[in-house]
Write a structure and sequence with these properties.
The structure holds 2 protein chains of 2 kinds.
Chain A lengths: L9 H35 L6 H22 L1 H8 L3 E2 L6 H14 L5 E5 L6 E4 L7 E5 H6 L2 H16 L2 H37 L2 H48 L2 H17 L3 H6 L16 H6 L5 H16 L1
Helix pairs in contact in A: 1-8, 2-7, 4-6, 6-8, 6-9, 7-8, 8-9, 8-12, 9-12
Chain B lengths: L2 H5 L16 H11 L2 E11 L5 H16 L6 E5 L5 E6 L5 H17 L6 E10 L4 E7 L4 E5 L1 E2 L3 E2 L1 H11 L22
Antiparallel strand pairs in B: 1-3, 1-4, 2-3, 4-5, 5-6, 7-8
Helix pairs in contact in B: 3-4
Classes of the chains: A mainly alpha, B alpha+beta.
Chain lengths: 323, 190
Protein backbone atom coordinates (compact mmCIF):
# COMPACT_ATOMS: atom_id res chain seq x y z
CA UNK A 1 0.00 0.00 0.00
CA UNK A 2 1.44 3.32 -1.03
CA UNK A 3 1.83 5.91 1.63
CA UNK A 4 -0.61 8.74 1.74
CA UNK A 5 -0.09 12.35 2.61
CA UNK A 6 -3.71 12.83 3.43
CA UNK A 7 -4.24 13.63 7.08
CA UNK A 8 -7.69 14.40 8.36
CA UNK A 9 -8.14 16.97 11.08
CA UNK A 10 -9.79 15.12 13.98
CA UNK A 11 -10.32 18.34 15.94
CA UNK A 12 -12.25 19.96 13.13
CA UNK A 13 -14.32 16.82 12.57
CA UNK A 14 -15.09 16.53 16.29
CA UNK A 15 -16.18 20.17 16.50
CA UNK A 16 -18.36 19.78 13.43
CA UNK A 17 -19.90 16.59 14.76
CA UNK A 18 -20.63 18.27 18.09
CA UNK A 19 -22.29 21.22 16.35
CA UNK A 20 -24.52 18.87 14.37
CA UNK A 21 -25.34 16.95 17.50
CA UNK A 22 -26.28 20.17 19.32
CA UNK A 23 -28.47 21.23 16.41
CA UNK A 24 -30.24 17.90 16.64
CA UNK A 25 -30.56 18.34 20.40
CA UNK A 26 -32.11 21.78 19.91
CA UNK A 27 -34.59 20.26 17.48
CA UNK A 28 -35.55 17.59 20.00
CA UNK A 29 -35.81 20.18 22.78
CA UNK A 30 -37.95 22.35 20.54
CA UNK A 31 -40.39 19.53 19.79
CA UNK A 32 -40.57 18.42 23.45
CA UNK A 33 -41.17 21.95 24.72
CA UNK A 34 -43.89 22.53 22.16
CA UNK A 35 -45.47 19.21 23.00
CA UNK A 36 -45.63 20.03 26.70
CA UNK A 37 -47.09 23.46 26.15
CA UNK A 38 -49.73 22.18 23.78
CA UNK A 39 -50.43 19.19 25.97
CA UNK A 40 -51.11 21.48 28.90
CA UNK A 41 -53.36 23.52 26.66
CA UNK A 42 -55.28 20.50 25.37
CA UNK A 43 -55.77 19.20 28.93
CA UNK A 44 -57.26 22.44 29.99
CA UNK A 45 -59.71 22.42 27.09
CA UNK A 46 -60.68 18.79 27.26
CA UNK A 47 -58.70 17.62 24.28
CA UNK A 48 -60.11 20.17 21.86
CA UNK A 49 -57.37 21.15 19.50
CA UNK A 50 -56.79 24.84 19.83
CA UNK A 51 -55.50 27.37 17.39
CA UNK A 52 -51.86 26.98 18.46
CA UNK A 53 -52.04 23.28 17.53
CA UNK A 54 -52.95 24.25 13.99
CA UNK A 55 -50.32 26.95 14.13
CA UNK A 56 -47.57 24.43 14.77
CA UNK A 57 -48.76 22.15 11.99
CA UNK A 58 -48.99 25.04 9.54
CA UNK A 59 -45.55 26.41 10.39
CA UNK A 60 -43.99 22.95 10.12
CA UNK A 61 -45.60 22.57 6.69
CA UNK A 62 -44.55 26.02 5.49
CA UNK A 63 -41.06 25.51 6.93
CA UNK A 64 -40.79 22.22 5.06
CA UNK A 65 -42.04 23.84 1.85
CA UNK A 66 -39.51 26.68 2.11
CA UNK A 67 -36.64 24.33 2.92
CA UNK A 68 -37.49 21.84 0.17
CA UNK A 69 -38.17 24.60 -2.35
CA UNK A 70 -34.89 26.32 -1.51
CA UNK A 71 -33.11 23.00 -1.76
CA UNK A 72 -34.71 21.96 -5.04
CA UNK A 73 -34.25 25.26 -6.85
CA UNK A 74 -31.05 26.30 -5.06
CA UNK A 75 -29.12 26.51 -8.34
CA UNK A 76 -31.76 28.62 -10.11
CA UNK A 77 -32.27 30.92 -7.13
CA UNK A 78 -28.56 31.54 -6.61
CA UNK A 79 -27.87 32.07 -10.31
CA UNK A 80 -30.81 34.49 -10.58
CA UNK A 81 -29.59 36.43 -7.55
CA UNK A 82 -26.08 36.73 -8.96
CA UNK A 83 -27.46 37.52 -12.46
CA UNK A 84 -25.20 34.72 -13.66
CA UNK A 85 -25.22 33.10 -17.10
CA UNK A 86 -24.20 29.52 -17.83
CA UNK A 87 -21.19 29.44 -20.14
CA UNK A 88 -20.10 26.80 -22.66
CA UNK A 89 -16.49 25.59 -23.10
CA UNK A 90 -16.30 27.76 -26.24
CA UNK A 91 -17.26 30.89 -24.31
CA UNK A 92 -14.88 30.32 -21.38
CA UNK A 93 -12.24 27.77 -22.43
CA UNK A 94 -9.83 28.69 -19.64
CA UNK A 95 -12.38 28.31 -16.84
CA UNK A 96 -13.73 25.05 -18.26
CA UNK A 97 -10.18 23.75 -18.64
CA UNK A 98 -9.41 24.33 -14.98
CA UNK A 99 -12.66 22.70 -13.85
CA UNK A 100 -12.13 19.75 -16.24
CA UNK A 101 -8.80 19.03 -14.61
CA UNK A 102 -10.07 19.38 -11.06
CA UNK A 103 -12.87 16.93 -11.91
CA UNK A 104 -10.37 14.45 -13.38
CA UNK A 105 -8.13 14.77 -10.31
CA UNK A 106 -11.01 14.34 -7.88
CA UNK A 107 -12.97 11.81 -9.92
CA UNK A 108 -16.13 13.91 -9.85
CA UNK A 109 -18.74 14.51 -12.54
CA UNK A 110 -18.34 17.90 -14.16
CA UNK A 111 -20.66 20.61 -12.86
CA UNK A 112 -22.18 23.33 -14.99
CA UNK A 113 -20.21 26.54 -15.12
CA UNK A 114 -21.60 30.06 -14.84
CA UNK A 115 -20.16 33.57 -14.82
CA UNK A 116 -21.76 36.46 -13.01
CA UNK A 117 -21.12 39.99 -14.31
CA UNK A 118 -20.64 41.36 -10.80
CA UNK A 119 -17.40 43.10 -9.98
CA UNK A 120 -17.18 41.81 -6.40
CA UNK A 121 -14.60 38.99 -6.41
CA UNK A 122 -16.48 35.90 -5.33
CA UNK A 123 -17.44 32.38 -6.27
CA UNK A 124 -20.07 29.93 -5.14
CA UNK A 125 -21.19 26.38 -5.73
CA UNK A 126 -24.82 25.37 -5.54
CA UNK A 127 -27.26 22.72 -6.67
CA UNK A 128 -28.95 19.93 -4.78
CA UNK A 129 -26.63 17.14 -5.94
CA UNK A 130 -23.30 16.79 -7.69
CA UNK A 131 -25.15 15.89 -10.89
CA UNK A 132 -26.92 19.23 -11.18
CA UNK A 133 -24.31 21.33 -9.41
CA UNK A 134 -23.33 24.74 -10.74
CA UNK A 135 -20.08 26.54 -10.08
CA UNK A 136 -20.34 30.27 -10.50
CA UNK A 137 -17.55 32.83 -10.48
CA UNK A 138 -17.87 36.58 -10.80
CA UNK A 139 -16.18 38.67 -13.44
CA UNK A 140 -14.36 40.46 -10.62
CA UNK A 141 -12.78 37.20 -9.47
CA UNK A 142 -11.64 36.29 -12.99
CA UNK A 143 -10.00 39.70 -13.36
CA UNK A 144 -8.18 39.68 -10.05
CA UNK A 145 -6.83 36.13 -9.72
CA UNK A 146 -4.22 34.34 -11.77
CA UNK A 147 -4.71 30.77 -13.02
CA UNK A 148 -3.22 29.09 -9.94
CA UNK A 149 -5.29 31.12 -7.48
CA UNK A 150 -8.41 30.59 -9.55
CA UNK A 151 -7.74 26.86 -9.46
CA UNK A 152 -7.48 27.01 -5.66
CA UNK A 153 -10.82 28.81 -5.37
CA UNK A 154 -12.50 26.41 -7.79
CA UNK A 155 -11.12 23.39 -5.91
CA UNK A 156 -12.61 24.88 -2.72
CA UNK A 157 -15.98 25.21 -4.44
CA UNK A 158 -15.76 21.68 -5.87
CA UNK A 159 -15.16 20.44 -2.34
CA UNK A 160 -18.41 22.09 -1.29
CA UNK A 161 -20.10 20.04 -4.01
CA UNK A 162 -18.36 16.85 -2.87
CA UNK A 163 -19.35 17.48 0.75
CA UNK A 164 -22.98 18.02 -0.29
CA UNK A 165 -22.98 21.30 1.59
CA UNK A 166 -26.19 22.55 0.01
CA UNK A 167 -28.06 19.56 1.41
CA UNK A 168 -26.36 19.68 4.81
CA UNK A 169 -26.99 23.39 5.29
CA UNK A 170 -30.59 23.11 4.07
CA UNK A 171 -31.37 20.44 6.62
CA UNK A 172 -29.58 22.44 9.31
CA UNK A 173 -31.41 25.65 8.54
CA UNK A 174 -34.84 24.00 8.36
CA UNK A 175 -35.08 24.20 12.15
CA UNK A 176 -34.32 27.91 12.12
CA UNK A 177 -36.89 28.60 9.39
CA UNK A 178 -39.55 26.70 11.31
CA UNK A 179 -38.88 28.47 14.59
CA UNK A 180 -38.88 31.88 12.93
CA UNK A 181 -42.20 31.12 11.24
CA UNK A 182 -43.73 29.97 14.48
CA UNK A 183 -42.76 33.22 16.18
CA UNK A 184 -44.14 35.30 13.37
CA UNK A 185 -47.38 33.35 13.08
CA UNK A 186 -47.84 33.39 16.83
CA UNK A 187 -47.41 37.14 16.69
CA UNK A 188 -50.05 37.58 13.98
CA UNK A 189 -52.43 35.17 15.65
CA UNK A 190 -52.13 37.22 18.81
CA UNK A 191 -52.82 40.42 16.89
CA UNK A 192 -55.77 39.32 14.80
CA UNK A 193 -57.15 36.16 16.32
CA UNK A 194 -56.75 36.93 20.02
CA UNK A 195 -59.94 38.98 20.50
CA UNK A 196 -62.13 36.60 18.56
CA UNK A 197 -60.85 33.57 20.43
CA UNK A 198 -61.69 35.18 23.71
CA UNK A 199 -65.29 35.85 22.68
CA UNK A 200 -65.82 32.46 21.06
CA UNK A 201 -64.71 30.39 23.99
CA UNK A 202 -67.05 32.13 26.40
CA UNK A 203 -64.92 31.72 29.49
CA UNK A 204 -63.04 34.84 30.56
CA UNK A 205 -60.30 32.72 32.07
CA UNK A 206 -59.79 30.58 28.94
CA UNK A 207 -58.99 33.57 26.75
CA UNK A 208 -56.16 34.72 28.99
CA UNK A 209 -54.84 31.18 29.12
CA UNK A 210 -54.79 30.97 25.32
CA UNK A 211 -52.79 34.17 25.17
CA UNK A 212 -50.37 32.71 27.69
CA UNK A 213 -49.95 29.57 25.59
CA UNK A 214 -49.32 31.74 22.53
CA UNK A 215 -46.70 33.63 24.43
CA UNK A 216 -45.04 30.39 25.53
CA UNK A 217 -45.01 29.07 21.94
CA UNK A 218 -43.48 32.33 20.74
CA UNK A 219 -40.87 32.25 23.47
CA UNK A 220 -39.88 28.69 22.56
CA UNK A 221 -39.67 29.78 18.95
CA UNK A 222 -37.46 32.77 19.76
CA UNK A 223 -35.05 30.77 21.91
CA UNK A 224 -34.87 27.95 19.33
CA UNK A 225 -34.28 30.42 16.55
CA UNK A 226 -31.50 32.22 18.41
CA UNK A 227 -29.68 29.04 19.43
CA UNK A 228 -30.05 27.35 16.07
CA UNK A 229 -28.93 30.53 14.29
CA UNK A 230 -25.64 30.51 16.20
CA UNK A 231 -25.17 26.78 15.66
CA UNK A 232 -25.89 27.02 11.93
CA UNK A 233 -23.37 29.82 11.56
CA UNK A 234 -20.84 27.74 13.47
CA UNK A 235 -21.53 24.74 11.24
CA UNK A 236 -21.14 26.93 8.17
CA UNK A 237 -17.71 28.09 9.37
CA UNK A 238 -16.58 24.50 9.90
CA UNK A 239 -17.83 23.53 6.44
CA UNK A 240 -15.78 26.37 4.96
CA UNK A 241 -12.65 25.19 6.78
CA UNK A 242 -13.27 21.64 5.52
CA UNK A 243 -13.69 22.86 1.96
CA UNK A 244 -10.45 24.86 2.25
CA UNK A 245 -8.70 21.77 3.49
CA UNK A 246 -10.00 19.35 0.85
CA UNK A 247 -9.48 21.89 -1.92
CA UNK A 248 -5.88 22.55 -0.89
CA UNK A 249 -5.09 18.84 -0.65
CA UNK A 250 -6.71 18.23 -4.02
CA UNK A 251 -4.53 20.67 -5.93
CA UNK A 252 -1.52 20.26 -3.65
CA UNK A 253 -1.20 24.04 -3.58
CA UNK A 254 -2.42 25.41 -0.25
CA UNK A 255 -0.51 28.65 -0.68
CA UNK A 256 -2.24 29.44 -3.98
CA UNK A 257 -5.58 29.26 -2.18
CA UNK A 258 -4.15 31.36 0.66
CA UNK A 259 -2.99 34.04 -1.73
CA UNK A 260 -6.41 34.05 -3.42
CA UNK A 261 -8.08 34.44 -0.02
CA UNK A 262 -5.87 37.39 0.90
CA UNK A 263 -6.54 39.04 -2.44
CA UNK A 264 -10.28 38.52 -2.34
CA UNK A 265 -10.73 39.41 1.32
CA UNK A 266 -8.55 42.46 0.93
CA UNK A 267 -10.55 43.63 -2.06
CA UNK A 268 -13.89 42.96 -0.41
CA UNK A 269 -12.90 44.83 2.71
CA UNK A 270 -11.58 47.76 0.72
CA UNK A 271 -14.63 48.35 -1.42
CA UNK A 272 -17.04 49.86 1.10
CA UNK A 273 -14.40 52.13 2.64
CA UNK A 274 -13.04 53.68 -0.51
CA UNK A 275 -15.05 56.88 -0.15
CA UNK A 276 -14.12 57.21 3.47
CA UNK A 277 -10.46 57.04 2.68
CA UNK A 278 -10.71 59.64 -0.02
CA UNK A 279 -12.29 61.98 2.47
CA UNK A 280 -9.88 61.12 5.25
CA UNK A 281 -6.50 60.16 3.80
CA UNK A 282 -4.93 59.53 7.19
CA UNK A 283 -7.25 56.59 7.77
CA UNK A 284 -5.33 54.70 5.16
CA UNK A 285 -2.39 54.36 7.49
CA UNK A 286 -3.99 52.07 10.00
CA UNK A 287 -6.34 50.40 7.64
CA UNK A 288 -5.27 46.81 7.05
CA UNK A 289 -8.09 45.36 5.01
CA UNK A 290 -6.85 41.80 5.02
CA UNK A 291 -6.48 41.52 8.75
CA UNK A 292 -8.87 44.16 10.06
CA UNK A 293 -9.35 43.56 13.76
CA UNK A 294 -12.86 42.28 14.11
CA UNK A 295 -14.14 41.40 17.53
CA UNK A 296 -15.08 37.91 18.62
CA UNK A 297 -18.74 38.90 18.54
CA UNK A 298 -18.49 39.49 14.83
CA UNK A 299 -16.85 36.10 14.40
CA UNK A 300 -19.69 34.44 16.26
CA UNK A 301 -22.26 35.60 13.71
CA UNK A 302 -20.34 35.27 10.49
CA UNK A 303 -20.83 32.46 7.97
CA UNK A 304 -17.12 32.29 7.16
CA UNK A 305 -14.18 31.73 9.49
CA UNK A 306 -11.80 34.62 9.94
CA UNK A 307 -9.05 35.03 7.40
CA UNK A 308 -6.42 34.41 10.07
CA UNK A 309 -7.95 31.02 10.88
CA UNK A 310 -8.16 29.99 7.25
CA UNK A 311 -4.59 31.07 6.53
CA UNK A 312 -3.31 29.26 9.62
CA UNK A 313 -4.94 26.03 8.47
CA UNK A 314 -3.54 26.35 4.95
CA UNK A 315 -0.12 27.02 6.43
CA UNK A 316 -0.34 23.79 8.38
CA UNK A 317 -1.30 21.81 5.27
CA UNK A 318 1.57 23.38 3.37
CA UNK A 319 3.99 22.19 6.03
CA UNK A 320 2.49 18.69 5.98
CA UNK A 321 2.95 18.53 2.21
CA UNK A 322 6.62 19.45 2.28
CA UNK A 323 7.53 16.91 4.93
CA UNK B 1 -16.94 8.43 -0.98
CA UNK B 2 -19.03 7.48 1.98
CA UNK B 3 -22.00 9.23 3.48
CA UNK B 4 -20.10 9.99 6.67
CA UNK B 5 -17.21 11.55 4.76
CA UNK B 6 -19.57 13.96 3.07
CA UNK B 7 -21.41 14.69 6.30
CA UNK B 8 -18.20 15.49 8.13
CA UNK B 9 -16.61 17.23 5.19
CA UNK B 10 -13.53 15.08 4.91
CA UNK B 11 -13.33 13.89 1.33
CA UNK B 12 -10.02 12.19 0.75
CA UNK B 13 -7.89 12.65 -2.36
CA UNK B 14 -8.56 9.79 -4.77
CA UNK B 15 -5.73 7.24 -5.17
CA UNK B 16 -4.81 6.39 -8.75
CA UNK B 17 -5.29 3.04 -10.44
CA UNK B 18 -1.95 2.21 -12.05
CA UNK B 19 -2.17 -1.34 -13.37
CA UNK B 20 -4.61 -0.78 -16.22
CA UNK B 21 -1.79 1.03 -18.02
CA UNK B 22 -0.22 -2.28 -19.02
CA UNK B 23 -3.15 -2.97 -21.35
CA UNK B 24 -1.81 -0.25 -23.65
CA UNK B 25 0.72 -2.27 -25.74
CA UNK B 26 -1.95 -4.76 -26.81
CA UNK B 27 -4.36 -1.95 -27.54
CA UNK B 28 -1.78 -0.22 -29.73
CA UNK B 29 -1.47 -3.35 -31.86
CA UNK B 30 -5.24 -3.65 -32.15
CA UNK B 31 -5.51 -0.02 -33.18
CA UNK B 32 -2.83 -0.46 -35.83
CA UNK B 33 -4.69 -3.45 -37.23
CA UNK B 34 -8.14 -1.87 -37.23
CA UNK B 35 -7.34 1.71 -38.27
CA UNK B 36 -4.68 3.82 -39.92
CA UNK B 37 -3.32 5.08 -36.60
CA UNK B 38 0.27 4.21 -35.69
CA UNK B 39 2.01 4.88 -32.38
CA UNK B 40 4.48 7.76 -32.43
CA UNK B 41 6.56 6.34 -29.60
CA UNK B 42 5.81 9.35 -27.47
CA UNK B 43 4.02 9.14 -24.19
CA UNK B 44 3.47 11.64 -21.41
CA UNK B 45 2.43 11.74 -17.80
CA UNK B 46 0.55 14.75 -16.49
CA UNK B 47 0.41 15.60 -12.81
CA UNK B 48 -0.33 18.51 -10.55
CA UNK B 49 2.89 19.39 -8.78
CA UNK B 50 2.38 19.91 -5.07
CA UNK B 51 4.21 22.72 -3.37
CA UNK B 52 7.15 22.07 -1.08
CA UNK B 53 10.47 20.29 -1.11
CA UNK B 54 9.11 16.76 -0.75
CA UNK B 55 7.49 16.88 -4.14
CA UNK B 56 10.34 18.56 -6.00
CA UNK B 57 12.74 15.94 -4.58
CA UNK B 58 10.59 13.14 -5.99
CA UNK B 59 10.25 14.94 -9.29
CA UNK B 60 14.02 15.21 -9.59
CA UNK B 61 14.46 11.55 -8.68
CA UNK B 62 12.04 10.53 -11.42
CA UNK B 63 13.87 12.58 -14.01
CA UNK B 64 17.19 11.08 -13.02
CA UNK B 65 15.79 7.56 -12.90
CA UNK B 66 14.49 7.77 -16.45
CA UNK B 67 17.40 9.54 -18.07
CA UNK B 68 20.05 7.44 -16.30
CA UNK B 69 18.29 4.13 -16.90
CA UNK B 70 19.61 1.40 -19.16
CA UNK B 71 17.74 2.64 -22.21
CA UNK B 72 18.46 6.32 -21.50
CA UNK B 73 15.00 7.56 -22.33
CA UNK B 74 15.11 11.15 -23.51
CA UNK B 75 12.54 13.01 -21.47
CA UNK B 76 11.26 16.54 -21.56
CA UNK B 77 9.60 18.35 -18.74
CA UNK B 78 7.19 21.15 -19.41
CA UNK B 79 4.50 23.07 -17.56
CA UNK B 80 1.23 24.04 -19.19
CA UNK B 81 -0.81 27.17 -18.66
CA UNK B 82 -2.94 25.42 -16.03
CA UNK B 83 0.06 24.82 -13.80
CA UNK B 84 0.23 21.08 -14.52
CA UNK B 85 3.56 19.39 -15.20
CA UNK B 86 4.09 17.08 -18.17
CA UNK B 87 6.85 14.49 -18.38
CA UNK B 88 7.23 13.46 -22.01
CA UNK B 89 9.12 10.24 -22.83
CA UNK B 90 10.33 9.35 -26.32
CA UNK B 91 10.92 5.78 -27.46
CA UNK B 92 11.13 4.21 -30.87
CA UNK B 93 7.69 3.71 -32.39
CA UNK B 94 7.78 -0.08 -32.05
CA UNK B 95 8.83 -0.15 -28.40
CA UNK B 96 5.49 0.62 -26.79
CA UNK B 97 6.17 -1.81 -23.97
CA UNK B 98 9.34 0.01 -22.97
CA UNK B 99 7.50 3.30 -23.12
CA UNK B 100 4.69 2.05 -20.90
CA UNK B 101 7.23 0.66 -18.43
CA UNK B 102 8.86 4.09 -18.21
CA UNK B 103 5.52 5.81 -17.73
CA UNK B 104 4.70 3.33 -15.00
CA UNK B 105 8.00 4.11 -13.29
CA UNK B 106 6.95 7.75 -13.05
CA UNK B 107 3.60 6.77 -11.61
CA UNK B 108 4.95 4.43 -8.99
CA UNK B 109 7.62 6.90 -7.85
CA UNK B 110 4.98 9.54 -7.30
CA UNK B 111 2.69 7.07 -5.60
CA UNK B 112 5.41 5.75 -3.31
CA UNK B 113 6.19 9.31 -2.29
CA UNK B 114 2.57 9.78 -1.26
CA UNK B 115 1.65 11.93 -4.23
CA UNK B 116 -0.48 9.40 -6.12
CA UNK B 117 -3.54 11.66 -5.92
CA UNK B 118 -1.60 14.33 -7.84
CA UNK B 119 -1.60 12.20 -11.03
CA UNK B 120 -4.02 13.53 -13.64
CA UNK B 121 -3.63 11.47 -16.80
CA UNK B 122 -1.24 9.69 -19.10
CA UNK B 123 -1.32 10.06 -22.87
CA UNK B 124 0.02 7.71 -25.51
CA UNK B 125 0.47 9.43 -28.87
CA UNK B 126 -0.70 8.07 -32.24
CA UNK B 127 -0.76 9.55 -35.71
CA UNK B 128 -2.87 8.72 -38.74
CA UNK B 129 -1.41 8.52 -42.25
CA UNK B 130 -3.11 11.84 -43.03
CA UNK B 131 -1.34 13.51 -40.14
CA UNK B 132 -4.29 13.60 -37.73
CA UNK B 133 -2.91 13.17 -34.19
CA UNK B 134 -4.66 11.00 -31.62
CA UNK B 135 -4.03 10.63 -27.93
CA UNK B 136 -5.16 7.67 -25.89
CA UNK B 137 -5.78 9.31 -22.55
CA UNK B 138 -5.72 7.26 -19.36
CA UNK B 139 -7.61 8.70 -16.41
CA UNK B 140 -5.85 7.47 -13.27
CA UNK B 141 -8.74 8.13 -10.92
CA UNK B 142 -11.31 6.27 -12.99
CA UNK B 143 -9.03 3.60 -14.38
CA UNK B 144 -10.47 4.22 -17.84
CA UNK B 145 -9.22 5.33 -21.24
CA UNK B 146 -10.66 7.63 -23.87
CA UNK B 147 -9.46 8.83 -27.28
CA UNK B 148 -8.70 12.48 -27.93
CA UNK B 149 -8.25 13.71 -31.51
CA UNK B 150 -7.47 17.43 -31.51
CA UNK B 151 -7.83 19.60 -34.58
CA UNK B 152 -6.53 23.12 -35.17
CA UNK B 153 -8.49 25.83 -33.38
CA UNK B 154 -9.36 23.86 -30.27
CA UNK B 155 -11.80 21.58 -32.01
CA UNK B 156 -11.85 17.83 -31.74
CA UNK B 157 -12.69 15.21 -34.30
CA UNK B 158 -15.54 13.40 -32.56
CA UNK B 159 -16.10 11.00 -35.47
CA UNK B 160 -12.54 9.71 -35.24
CA UNK B 161 -12.76 9.44 -31.47
CA UNK B 162 -15.91 7.36 -31.66
CA UNK B 163 -14.34 5.18 -34.37
CA UNK B 164 -11.35 4.53 -32.12
CA UNK B 165 -13.64 3.74 -29.22
CA UNK B 166 -15.32 1.13 -31.38
CA UNK B 167 -11.98 -0.39 -32.38
CA UNK B 168 -10.61 -0.57 -28.82
CA UNK B 169 -13.74 -1.50 -26.92
CA UNK B 170 -12.56 -5.07 -26.31
CA UNK B 171 -8.97 -4.27 -25.28
CA UNK B 172 -9.36 -1.27 -23.01
CA UNK B 173 -11.84 -0.14 -20.43
CA UNK B 174 -13.19 2.89 -22.28
CA UNK B 175 -14.70 5.69 -20.19
CA UNK B 176 -18.45 5.26 -20.59
CA UNK B 177 -19.40 8.78 -19.48
CA UNK B 178 -18.73 10.97 -22.51
CA UNK B 179 -18.88 14.01 -20.21
CA UNK B 180 -15.57 12.92 -18.77
CA UNK B 181 -13.71 12.83 -22.07
CA UNK B 182 -12.17 16.15 -21.16
CA UNK B 183 -10.02 17.83 -23.82
CA UNK B 184 -6.28 18.27 -23.23
CA UNK B 185 -5.50 21.04 -25.69
CA UNK B 186 -1.86 21.53 -26.47
CA UNK B 187 -0.77 18.43 -24.59
CA UNK B 188 2.96 18.01 -25.20
CA UNK B 189 3.85 15.01 -27.34
CA UNK B 190 0.64 14.96 -29.38
Amino acid sequence: MARTRYASDPGLIARMGLTMFLLGAVLVGFVIALYFVLFAYANRHGGASGSSDGLVVISVLIGLAIAIGGFWWSDKIALRTARAQLVTPQQAPELHGIIDRICALANMPKPRVAISPMNVPNAFATGRSSKVAVICVTQGLLQRLDAKELEGVLAHEMSHVAHKDVAVMTIASFLGIMAALLVRMGFYAELFGGGRGRGGRGGNNGGGYTALIMLAVMLIGIVTYAVSFLLIRMLSRYRELSADRSGALLTGQPSALASALVKVTGDMARIPTRDLRQAEPLNAFYFTPALSGKGSVHNLFSTHPSLEKRLAQLDKISKQLSR
Amino acid sequence: MGFLDALLGRTKPVPPNLDALFALPTAAITLQAATDFNPTGTGSVCFRAAEGKAFSDIENDVRELLSMGENKTPIEVSADSYGFTWLVCHHSADDIEGLVTDLHAVNSSLENGGFGPQLLCTILGFREGSGQPLGLVYLYKRGTFYPFAPQPGERRDNATELRVRGALGDDLKIESDLGRWFPVWGAPGL
